[in-house]
Specification:
Chain lengths: 313, 545
Amino acid sequence: MDTTGTLFLPPANSTLASEVDPLWGFLFWSSTIMFAIVMAMIAFFVIKYRRRGQDTLTTGNAHNAPLEIAWTVIPTILVMIIFIWGFKSYIKFYVAPKDALEINVTGQKWFWSFDYPGGANSVSDITVPVGKPVKLLMSSKDVLHSFYVPNFRIKMDVLPNRYTTAWFEATAVGDYQIFCTEYCGKGHSEMLGKVKVVGEREFAEWLEKSSGMGEGLSLEEFGAQLYKSRACNTCHTLDGKKLVGPTFKGLFGREEAMTDGTRLVADENYLRESMLDPKAHIVNGYDPVMPTYQGILKDRQIDALIAFIKAQQ
Amino acid sequence: MEPTIPQTHYLNSPKGLKSWLFTLDHKRIGIMYFAAIMFFFFFAGLLAIILRTELLNPGRDLMDAEAYNRFFTLHGAIMIFLFIIPSIPAALGNFLLPLMIGAKDVAFPRLNLASWYVFVGGAIFGIYSLISGGADTGWTFYTPYSTSTTSSVSSMLLAAFILGFSSIFTGLNFIVTIHKLRAPGQTWFKLPLMVWALYATALIQVLATPVLAITLVLLLLERTMGIGIFDPAMGGDPVLYQHFFWFYSHPAVYIMILPGMGIISELISHMSHRKIFGYNAIAYSSFGIALVSFLVWGHHMFTSGQSELAAVIFSFLTFFVGIPSGVKVFNWVMTLYKGSISLATPMLYALSFLVLFTIGGLTGIFLGALSVDIHVHDTYFVVAHFHYVMMGGTVMALLGGIHFWWPKMFGKRYNEFWAATSAIIIFIGFNMTFFTQFILGAQGMPRRYYTYIDQYQSLHVFSTYGAWVLGLGFLIMAIYFIHSLIKGKPAGNNPWGAIGFEWETASPPPTENFVTQPVVTHGPYDYDKVLIPREMPTRSEKVAR
């Protein structure tokens, strides 16, 4: 398995990649050869028949049936080979093995969330076991998105009205980039994540830990964990900088003017409402773009996040 | 003897702004289109340079994500609807078609003028959308984003809707003109290949554009009145929108490239004084392309959630659109064989076209292969591919055509040294900008990204430098063309020694095109029978003097 990548392709880290990359190689080399032949002919003719001095009548043929048939038939055969090859590997991409681990994927502006069998969930990053097929059952909460992992050579649009699927089997432990590749507005280019491929045992441990409620941690420590794992950090900073949403620094206890004209103090109840019904009160100068975390965050997790925000003074 | 410019010609008689605004002369309407499309080309080109500059670094350089999204939408929408679709047919085609078939004008001169005013009307809606904040949907207006965003989408949709009518008017006019107004003796197989290409293009314009119009109206109804057609929240289906949209927009790709192929057939034959190789094959392949172009729209949707069976059928059919394009390239290359090849600027653009269009075509094969497309779909690989076909293809052909017929349009020469220099700079800048994007895309860089992860930066930087080089090339071009209009030397009636009715009349032509009705006495590319003296010396001959 090639895991270093080439000038063109990123490293190949899934079983599908080893189906697709040889076709890519065939396409690359046959086009390069075709291109070189055409360019060599052009260069040769332009140099050899360049106009020098007086114009004369030219005598070249305007027709040559065998030549014309040849350059129609040969490319047709070549593209049919490519079609069948592309078709065969596409079917492998399409049909997931029966024993695949099924994970639900939800796309929304502008993050991914993942639900695992057994109740665990995660945001932005998906953790999967190495060497085991994983089937993604995907849907969107708002507009179109598209789930793309270059190292696995998989991509599938995520739609609001139906489920689409994709599957992969990672061949090496590591972190692999997830992109959204269907334009979805302001945060499109930051709708990123990682596929974290881990060993079978680490995966079991991870599952147990993430279905947990931060046992053994203080609320504030658990909140700090959630701040990253639930992707609060893509829109809210801790250092006072303004992103899509207000910074958490000094947020607790601050009085803010709302777009509906009221003034509110950011207390525990306001923070809770902002997570569960974020469009209820919007701070002046911000767009109502935050998605609801209703159903994603459990009560102890909300308590933990509030404790974490309180600590950012 | 140095050539002179005739006393009266279509540009100066009659005089006055009103005589232009109410003109029925196809040449003047062509020039008015030409001015409009060049304005939009430079404007949208400037947007492209700003976009590339923003991408020099990840994160914010010049603007925020919202502004960036509006800029790339504008760049795409203007380039497609206001520049490239009308570019060759409505500007050069309008000017050339009656001249090439020995006619006084197109069949319906008033409809022709109406098409220009409809175009301007559509453009005004586009500009209104721009000043009222601009749309941020991408030129494809995918739902449900386009029905839910608060940006100025409706006026942009109306603009595209109205512009479609101007395109249909031009297409209809050309079909009738080609059928009814050909010179005595000019049978179908004695037509210049540019005319065949314009005919095939006109068929697509008339048959496909109404589908776009209907789609945009449905989208408008959904957006303004909440009628659920595409938005799943209202019981619609967003994939249906994509089917409708690409049913027009894939054939539209051939509205853009077929006329370019027509120009290249002319340039290669006339600039190498060599009978075109495979006239029939080139003529028929235009129709083959036009026909198959209606059957391949689903290859834009391999990852969209359409059925797998549909994806497989569309992939299969897609490869058949590649074959006639390949046949054309081989014919052009064989036309060079045993020719007398001039390397003046129009030929430099024709050769650029051959190089860039071949790359564009071959990378299209990558995208037609299902499993490879899954990887590169919606990445910079696609962006690079369509810029190679549209800019490396259509725009290079357009520029070659402008340089070839400029002496006929304005009766003046341009500075050959600067023209050749700018052609070479544009070729280099283009490849720097877009070849890099093939690599970026294959590495996984998604399109329509305002910012990107660090590993892509060096390639982005190189691509941006390329865009600046490209901008420099076009700046030089603007300068020498303006210089030519003001101070250019008279070009003569037939500077290239080319066969064709348009070269038998004066430069610029009189309002009536021809003093006497021209008659066909030989084939359109009979350089093995007819020798016509050139009036424009080549670079090497100039040096020898």
